[in-house]
Write a structure and sequence with these properties.
Helix content is 0%, strand content 47%. By secondary structure, it is an all-beta fold.
């Protein structure tokens, strides 16, 4: 079942049977596919601290970028998916954020989108051993950012920007173009 997420996720415009809410969490119900669709040029996670995608649920960025609001602190996938099924290169845009953000992929989760743009806070990305992360352009910008890959990760470019950043690579990691650590006391740990 395909559904659209309205630009104001706090309103009653949420399509029935698609995105659900529970307190400060917005989620995709299990085994559902919900599209992120820009309405009037605006689409964000405003009003929510957590985005939860689990139990074979899918968020499809086929119509729009997902714009992360400053109050959104966590994106958690537990056997969930974030994809872009269109030919237009949409992704996750947190460039206006100043707060910290954790992106966690566990239990056979998958992200396959065009881009992930972080803000000025600390971004933390965790890909567990059963999960995969495929993004053409990852920009983590400022802050003390971290990326831990225990699974399968494939990026075009990975740019940490400034800060004391940490890249831990224990799974399979491929960068088509570059991994740029930027200024700071950075740490790279690899499995060889």
């Amino acid at each position: 079942r395909n559904c659209d997420w309205s630009s104001d996720v706090c309103s009653s415009d949420l399509p029935e049977g698609c995105y659900g809410t529970s307190g400060s969490t917005v989620y995709v119900p299990e085994e559902q596919t919900c599209a992120v669709k820009a309405i009037n040029g605006a689409n964000s996670s405003a009003g929510y601290q957590t985005i939860l995608i689990r139990r074979q649920a899918t968020m499809d960025l086929r119509d729009s970028n997902l714009f992360l609001a400053n109050e959104t602190e966590t994106i958690t996938l537990i056997n969930g998916r974030i994809i872009n099924s269109s030919s237009t290169p949409y992704g996750i845009d947190g460039s206006s954020r100043s707060g910290d953000l954790a992106l966690n992929l566990t239990d056979n989760s998958r992200i396959r989108i065009a881009s992930f743009q972080g803000g000025s806070g600390r971004e933390s990305i965790l890909v567990d051993a059963s999960s995969s992360f495929e993004i053409a352009s990852v920009a983590l910008n400022q802050g003390d950012d971290s990326f831990r890959n225990d699974g399968q990760s494939h990026v075009g470019t990975l740019n940490f920007g400034s800060g004391n950043d940490r890249l831990e690579q224990y799974g399979t990691f491929k960068a088509d173009n570059a991994v740029e650590m930027g200024p700071g006391n950075d740490i790279i740990i690899t499995n060889g």
